[in-house]
Design goal:
Blueprint lengths: L4 H16 L11 H24 L3 E3 L8 E2 L2 E2 H24 L9 H18 L4 H21 L4 H10 L1 H11 L9 E3 L8 E2 L2 E2 L1 H25 L7
Antiparallel strand pairs: 1-4, 2-3, 5-6
Helix pairs in contact: 1-3, 2-3, 2-8, 4-5, 5-8
Pathway: Carotenoid biosynthesis
Keywords: Carotenoid biosynthesis, Isomerase, Membrane, Transmembrane, Transmembrane helix
Membrane topology: Multi-pass membrane protein
């Protein structure tokens, strides 16, 4: 049964959010098109990145905990990760929007974005010789600059609040992947290519990686919503 560990983790991650998606108040299914479009856009970035880093042994997968089915040298479970985690987190984002429609961080979102850009840029420079750190925080800083200066996104305060909330489930999911609850990690990391700092078993770099992943998905979803509001799309 060990070989189904990563698969089971994916199922547990998405199970409750999926079934609650049909709940009448939030009715998350109305945003499925925008969500899966966002996931598709994110996958276009993250899967080639994943394939590249796996081939370079920046990280890898423990055969003990995967089924062995692979596409482009990535376990099928890793492909599912890029669906289940964004799905669950975006569901939480819409739940937050429903119960707290105005983010308490809305008034300072630009300041938070500027700080994140600065921190990400500094980390990418300091760790320019660590490919995971450099790539993650370079891309994150560039995407945040686009949001701050070009897109002028008004949902970032809510996104940052969500990101604080999801650190608890992230901690358990990433912890499970990095060996917090198993004899060996499901996903291993080469510490020579990251900051070398761990939150118990989780590389700190994963915080930036996860932020970028979710921000891409939610950005596309928010663009989808704008098209609905302007009448460009009809959702029933």
């Amino acid at each position: 049964m060990e070989k189904y560990t990563y698969l089971l983790l994916n199922i547990l991650t998405i199970a409750l959010p999926f079934f609650w998606s049909f709940e009448k108040k939030i009715f998350f299914v109305r945003y499925w098109r925008g969500l899966f479009l966002g996931i598709a856009v994110m996958i276009l970035v993250f899967v080639p990145w994943d394939v590249w880093f796996t081939s370079m042994q920046v990280w890898g997968f423990n055969e003990r905990y995967i089924t062995g089915i692979k596409i482009a040298n990535l376990p099928i479970e890793e492909w599912l990760f890029f669906i289940t985690v964004p799905y669950a987190c975006t569901f939480l984002y819409e739940t937050l929007n429903y119960y707290l429609p105005k983010s308490p961080l809305a008034g300072i979102q630009d300041k938070i974005t500027a700080i994140l850009i600065f921190v990400s840029f500094v980390l990418s420079i300091v760790f320019v010789d660590r490919i995971y750190t450099f790539t993650t925080f370079s891309l994150l800083s560039l995407f945040l600059i686009w949001h701050l200066l070009i897109n002028r996104s008004n949902f970032l305060g809510q996104f940052y609040l969500l990101f604080v909330f999801v650190q608890i489930p992230f901690f358990f999911v990433n912890g499970a992947l990095t060996g917090m609850f198993t004899d060996e990690p499901i996903v291993w990391y080469n510490n020579a290519e990251n900051m070398g700092i761990r939150l118990i078993t989780i590389p700190v770099d994963d915080v930036g990686y996860n932020m970028l992943m979710l921000l891409i998905v939610i950005t596309v979803l928010e663009m989808f919503k704008v098209r609905i509001l302007t009448g460009a799309l009809k959702v029933t």
